[in-house]
Amino acid sequence: MIELMRSAALTSFPELARSLGLDPDSLLAAAGIDRRALADPDMRIPVEYVGDLLEIAAEQSGVEAFGLRLAETRQISIIGPIGLLLREEATVGDAFRSACRYISLHNEAISFRLEKVEDQAVIQGGVHLARRRPYRQGVELTLAVLYRVLAQLIGPQWRPLVCIAHDPPVRRDVHHRVLGPRVDFRCNYNGLIFPWSDLERPVPGADPAFAKQ
Q: Nearest CA to 52 among 28, 20, 26, 79?
């Protein structure tokens, strides 16, 4: 099974690569990605290829937080029509559940699970490939995009606990800039922990009738 994703995931990749002294065309070729994917955000490309691309870019640039640097360019629009739907859900919880329901339309390898532990919301998940490989950059990019999407719905003051399963980087400044001050490494899973009440917040300016159509 080959999991596919929208090539919108490559948005801003060429600009970031060039800013770090890399040749984006050479990187795309090394990962087996057709350059036409840069021009068509809805082109379907293998998730594994994008994972390879990010790892190669991180290694060649010496930037351990390459995936997070890319995540800094992401807004809710990166997930296409799904992002429009989330904007119109009644509550943040409704928006998250819709994201879980439809995220495979954007990336077939992503899934999340939501649990309530006492008064806390615990989200676990991320990238799940049939052929398991250590994609540190892809894990951090996915978590950061989820973080940024929820922060756009909840507010810029939102500060969840971010759980990351792999080892910490040499420097954590980019992690704290992108993911906030509460980032733990060597966790049992990748995910977020925050008050359950945050999911009950209304989405600012939403039209729930639109979401039901």
A: 28
Look at 147 and 211; give whichever has higher pLDDT: 147
Contact (Cβ atoms closer than 8 angstroms) between residue 193 and residue 161: yes
What's the distance, CA 114 to chain centroid?
Answer: 16
What does the pLDDT look like over 42-101, one tens digit per residue?
Answer: 999 999 999 999 999 999 999 999 999 999 998 888 888 888 888 899 999 999 999 999
Burial of 135 from C-beta contacts in 10 A (0-12 / 13-18 / 19+)? buried
In one letter, which amino acid is 80? G
Q: Could you tell me if 89 and 98 are in contact, meaning their C-beta atoms sit under 8 angstroms apart?
A: yes
**Strand residue runs (E) in 54-179:** 110-117, 120-127, 161-163
Which one, of 80, 75, 212, 82, lies nearest residue 149 by Cα? 75
Taking the mean position of all CA atoms in its chain, how far away is CA 182? Answer: 17
Percent over 70 (pLDDT), the chain: 94
CA dihedral 59, 166, 121, 208 (to 10 degrees): 20
